Amino acid sequence: MQPSNASGVPDRYVETAQTLGASRTQIVTKVLVALALPDIYNSLRHLFGMAFGYIMLAELINANYGLGYLLMTSQRRGLSEHIILILMVIGLLAFAIDRMLYFFQRGLFPYRSADE
Amino acid sequence: MTTLSNIVEFRGVTKRFGDFTAIRDVTFAVPDLPGQGEFVTMLGPSGCGKSTVLRLIAGLPPQHPASEGIVHVANAPVAGPGADRGMVFQDYTSFDNRTVEDNVAFGLECRGVGARERREQARAWIEKVGLDVKRDAEKYPSQLSGGMRQRVAIARTLILRPRIILMDEPFGALDPSTRLHMQELINKLWREAEATVFFVTHSIEEAVYLGDRVYVFSSSPGTILREITVPKSDRPPREMLREKAFTQLVDDIRDTVDTLQSSVRAGD
């Protein structure tokens, strides 16, 4: 995902920087990386969402602690109110972390009306 | 006057992309007038290779290098892009992650000018291109209108005091009234900049208003059909456009352009 973010910076920006006397290194740091950073961050945020899902899945299958583990034990013991509580906690946790990352995104890249 | 040196010289320049010939046998020379420069406008239909000429001067690939012929800037072959040849593009190319001030200071930053000096010069240029330092310096490009972005682009180029300024239809995407303001601004600024300007447009009024000389291009493969010298404009475009002499000149050139271009089409 990240390489496509960097190549997504239009050539025009590079050309503009060249006609303003930027060196190769300066083009990479001041233009390519600088302009691609918000997209890279955003990609990482989305990837985190997926990763969180996989962690939960892994905990369901084989773990000795964690929310997934609690979910499985509750199910085995027939504690349905616990199951519902745990599901709510998982959802809230995922939402809270995403909001937190989003909050940082807006602080780091104020010039981008951050894409959800 | 023995040998007058040329700031830009094209000798039999041809550029091909595979089977497509963008420009064919373009030859011209713009003399180096120290301390004043010249304003050259290039007129022609879309896709006639005007931009190719600009990009050859700028040294930007894939147009650079030329397939045939010689491109000289200040009596030396063009090796690649550099800050002595500033370029303003039609598309808005303000760096989105930088404020107006940091955008204008970009070139100075690349040169290693200190933060304080950068800030001072950038603010002076923001003022010169008609933006409000207090209100606009800290804004990001996404908060600016098209006209304001082009002002930033102009400031960013002129702050480096280039010998040559290349403008590729910089006002093409602006509404007519903003465009007139921008023409007036450029007309005022370039005299002060003492640079040679190459300005691509397909508006005849714009070419005549801004230019000292106008190169008329044929459609592809592009080549210079005629060079027309026009008088300097010293008043705002709004006034000039109302003047008989000015509109007469524009009409004459329009006729010339039409005749030249239709004869070329017939000839091919």
What does this structure look like?
The complex is a heterodimer of chains A (116) and B (268). Chain A contains five helices and no strands. Chain A has 116 residues and is an all-alpha fold. Chain A has helices at residues 2-7, 11-19, 24-61, 67-77, 80-108. Chain A is 80% helix and 0% strand. With 268 residues, chain B is α/β, with parallel strands linked by helices. In chain B, the strands form two sheets. Chain B has a six-stranded mixed sheet with strand order 6-7-8-3-9-10, with helices on both faces. Chain B has a four-stranded antiparallel sheet with strand order 2-1-4-5, with helices on one face. In chain B, a hairpin with a 2-residue loop joins strand 1 (6-17) and strand 2 (20-31). Chain B has helices at 50-58, 100-104, 106-111, 115-128, 133-136, 146-158, 176-193, 204-210, 237-242, 244-267; strands spanning 6-17, 20-31, 39-43, 68-73, 76-77, 85-88, 164-168, 196-201, 213-217, 224-229. The longest helix of chain B is centred in the C-terminal third of the chain and has 24 residues, at 244-267. Helices cover 40% and strands 24% of the residues of chain B. Chains A and B meet through helix 2 and helix 3 of A and strand 6, helix 3 and helix 6 of B.
